[in-house]
Design brief:
Length: 118
């Protein structure tokens, strides 16, 4: 089984995978005059930070194309449930610094971005 699939397509295993859980607080949340912080959590969303190291241009292109749609359905290992889950995400800004070692061996140093649950 692939570590991650995007819209049903297996993606090369990332070099880095960081799972995160973000609380979403109600608009009236915050500090009140009694100096108590009121969180008022109304929901939670997952954020996955992904990175690939030293990929050739073809593999980098495959990764970038898979994560290019406005919204994607991702199957991934979820650290809270302890099993694979499928959820809808959008993608943050993507970067892919390039290294030139010699002619015919152009590689991306890293490909990194976050995906955030919708």
């Amino acid at each position: 089984m692939a570590m991650i699939t995007v819209d049903g397509v297996e993606i090369p295993c990332p070099s880095t995978f960081s799972w995160g859980l973000q609380d979403i607080s109600a608009s009236e949340s915050g500090r009140t005059e009694d100096t108590v912080m009121h969180k008022n959590r109304v929901g939670q969303k997952r954020k996955l930070s992904l990175g690939w190291t030293g990929k050739d241009w073809q593999t980098t292109s495959q990764i970038m194309q898979a994560f290019n749609p406005e919204y994607i359905t991702v199957k991934y290992p979820d650290m809270l449930s302890g099993q694979y889950e499928t959820r809808k995400f959008y993608v943050g800004d993507r970067t892919a610094p390039v290294k030139w070692w010699w002619v015919g061996n152009q590689r991306t140093e890293t490909v990194t971005f976050d995906i955030i649950e919708v």
